[in-house]
Design brief:
Layout (H helix, E strand, L loop, with lengths): L21 E4 L3 H10 L4 E2 L5 E3 L12 E4 L15 E3 L1 H15 L3 E9 L7 E7 L2 H10 L5 H5 L5 E6 L6 H4 L6 E5 L4 E5 L5 H18 L3 E9 L5 E6 L5 H5 L5 E4 L2 E4 L4 E4 L3 E5 L9 H6 L5 E3 L21 E5 L11 E3 L1 E8 L9 E4 L1 H10 L1 E4 L11 E4 L12 H15 L2 E6 L2 E2 L7 E2 L2 H12 L11 E3 L6 E3 L12 H5 L2 H23 L4 H4 L9
Parallel strand pairs: 1-6, 3-17, 4-5, 4-9, 7-8, 8-10, 12-20, 20-24
Antiparallel strand pairs: 2-3, 6-7, 9-10, 11-12, 11-13, 11-14, 14-15, 15-19, 16-18, 17-18, 21-24, 22-23, 25-26, 27-28
Helix pairs in contact: 1-3, 9-10
Length: about 550
């Protein structure tokens, strides 16, 4: 819908309480790009992409994400450190302050939608203070046609005011930035932060409540692609595990790289119309599809440009969380529309910095539910202040910050869908081999790709004792051989050459799993509880 602009249709925001604003409605990505540069809010990189700095916040701020506690949410939300309650009167007062702040300003408005499956379509209106934030919404949400816009009726509204600073003592926030979801008013209210990820994750969080509660559909923090024979593969994984890289495959069509729903009709659909990828150390050799997607229309965040506009992707002087957003059509091999059928394989990706998990293993349904709830990966030295050795990191459902319901609800839905659809689930360790971080080496990407291709080609077959070995600590089934992968690599213990050190480290990790899972046990079935690591002691 490039080229459609505000001359075709005018709108009023008076019903939101925003008065006397200069409204730029449905501007093209090109026009928003030009306005950002003209206002000194960004620079054009040599690739043609817009480069912006998001300011104080270069990532999400989970402790400043709130959900309004009311009659819809009070008995359904899993309240706690992840889903922090916000009182109705406090929201109403804060909302009035934000819309008053946006009144009399030049603002940018976009109508769009989420969910590629028309049966689940969610119309969204995004109201932005900055033009490049509105261009981000163009990239990341699905884009209506002119005909769809004529009678467009938004179901949810995102109000995004990075320049508005809350007063914590008065407004009920923790600090000056905030992202508040109100399910009764169907509003995501964001202020005090320019980080664009808050916009897309606000709607993702809303869908993570709406779809399971009202539509019996499983929302997933995952990427997905589809093969030439119509088989869909799903990739769950936290940041740095390879979710975007491994799903962007020249031999398979990309459905999406981050957020999907799995319906009762056994379809998998993308929530989004674009990708939001990390670009730290990006190179064309390793990730050509993503590298080539960075062109006019894309937005680079918090990267460093030289005097000629070239990006130094290794420069982390602003943040390690450098990003790019771009529409899906910047990738050549995509599925149109972004819907897959017939899910056959699910991959749980983890970067195990302890180097003890097998590089590939097959999970039973109970193990799959356990590992899904656990959402394990590991932090390594340098990723956060104070991290000097590997630290286990758990994020329930591989996306805890965005899950309003108890993780067991999503795990039970996943288990049922796996069983009903006959899906195989695989645990893939993209982390360390031959020892922990600092001793061993990172698993070669070509080996990980070979393992995934072996699964997708049916080369690993069904479990049997001749072809698989049951790991003595984690109880998972690891293949004895895999095309394209040295047999020695498939056994993590064998790569260590020190059995005692290996098992000591392995049991250290199982203890971390069990300690993390304690908070979920009361809500889980006995079958799921039995899916954890074998409880042996060294």
């Amino acid at each position: 819908m490039e080229g459609f602009d505000q001359l075709t249709k005018t709108i009023s925001l008076e019903n939101y309480g925003i008065k006397n604003a200069k409204i730029n409605y449905q501007l093209s990505a090109e026009k928003l790009h030009d306005i950002s540069i003209a206002k000194g809010l960004g620079k054009e990189a040599s690739s043609g992409a817009l480069a912006v700095n998001t300011g104080e916040f270069t990532g999400r701020s989970p402790k400043d994400r709130f959900i309004v506690k009311d009659e819809i949410t009070q008995d359904r939300i899993w309240w706690g450190d992840i889903n922090i309650p916000f009182e109705v009167p406090a929201f109403n007062k804060l909302y009035d302050k934000v819309v008053d702040y946006l009144s009399n300003k030049e603002i940018f408005v976009r109508d769009s939608y989420a969910c590629a499956d028309p049966n689940y379509k969610l119309n969204i209106r995004v109201i932005n203070e900055y033009p490049w934030s509105n261009q981000f919404a163009y990239n990341m949400f699905l884009r209506p046609t002119k005909d769809e816009l004529k009678n467009f009726s938004p179901k949810w509204t995102v109000i995004n005011a990075p320049g508005f600073m809350a007063n914590p003592e008065v407004d009920g926030t923790r600090q000056h930035n905030f992202a508040v979801l109100n399910f009764s008013k169907k509003i995501a209210l964001i202020g005090g932060t320019g980080y664009t990820g808050e916009i897309k994750k606000g709607i993702f969080s809303a869908l993570n409540f709406i779809l399971p509660v009202y539509r019996n559909t499983l929302p997933m923090h995952c990427s997905a692609n589809i093969g030439k024979d119509g088989d869909t593969a799903i990739f769950f994984g936290l940041s740095g595990t390879g979710k975007t890289t491994l799903s962007t495959d020249p031999n398979r069509s990309l459905i999406g790289d981050d957020e999907h729903g799995w319906t009762n009709e056994n379809n998998v659909f993308n929530f989004e119309g674009g990708c939001y990828a990390k670009v730290i150390n990006l190179s064309r050799d390793n990730e050509p599809e993503i590298y080539d997607a960075i062109k006019k229309g894309a937005i680079l965040e918090n990267v460093i440009l030289d005097e000629h506009g070239h990006v130094d992707f290794s420069d982390t002087s602003i943040t390690q969380n450098t990003r790019v957003s771009y529409p899906l059509n910047h990738i050549e091999n995509i599925q149109v529309p972004s819907i897959g059928k017939n899910p056959k394989n699910i991959f749980f990706l983890t970067a195990d910095a302890f180097g003890v998990l097998p590089p590939i293993s097959k999970l039973t349904p109970s193990q799959a539910a356990y590992h899904f709830i656990s959402g394990y990966t590991a932090k390594v030295a340098g990723t956060e202040a104070g991290v000097v050795e590997p630290v286990p990191s758990f994020s329930a459902c591989f996306g805890a910050p965005f899950m309003p319901l108890h993780p067991s609800k999503y795990a039970e839905m996943l288990s049922k869908k796996m069983t009903d659809a006959g899906v195989n689930v695989w645990l893939i360790n993209t982390g360390w081999t031959g020892g922990a971080y600092g001793v061993g080496t990172r698993m070669k990407l070509k080996y990980t790709r070979a393992m995934i291709n072996a699964v997708l080609n049916g080369d690993l077959g069904l479990y049997n004792y001749d072809d698989y070995h049951i790991h003595s600590v984690f109880g998972v089934a690891q293949p004895r051989t895999c095309p394209g992968v040295p047999t020695s690599v498939l056994s993590p213990r064998a790569t260590w050459n020190d059995d005692k050190a290996y098992y000591t480290t392995a049991f250290k990790l199982t203890n971390a799993f069990r300690e993390n899972f304690k908070k979920f046990e009361a809500h889980c079935t006995e079958e799921i509880r039995r899916g954890g690591p074998q409880r042996y002691a060294f």
